[in-house]
């Protein structure tokens, strides 16, 4: 009787251990599934943030390239405007030079006319 009670007790303990082991395995599997679901959920956000960062980096690189091109073009425009301004100044200088030469030529012409008239007057008075 005692031995049958001990055998019965060991049998019940063995059944309880098997049930406990199976529940432990189920709990571990459920915890693993839950952990995987949480990681997957977090990874979606991280993956989206990573994709957004890649897009931002690409757009920043494109913006930098565009800014460099714009800077280069602006520098070319400034050079062109400075060249144009310099050419206008030279035209103004040439115009002033031409006016000065014209004034000098008129002065010389007037002087030559006066001398010519004076010599004509002397020639006509000496021939009389």
UniProtKB/TrEMBL annotation:
Full protein name: Biogenesis of lysosome-related organelles complex 1 subunit 1
Taxonomic path: Eukaryota, Metazoa, Ecdysozoa, Arthropoda, Hexapoda
GO BP field: endosomal transport
Positions of the UniProt region annotated as Disordered: 1-20
Originating species: Dendroctonus ponderosae
Family to which the UniProt record says this protein belongs: Belongs to the BLOC1S1 family.
GO annotation, cellular component aspect: BLOC-1 complex
Domain of life: Eukaryota
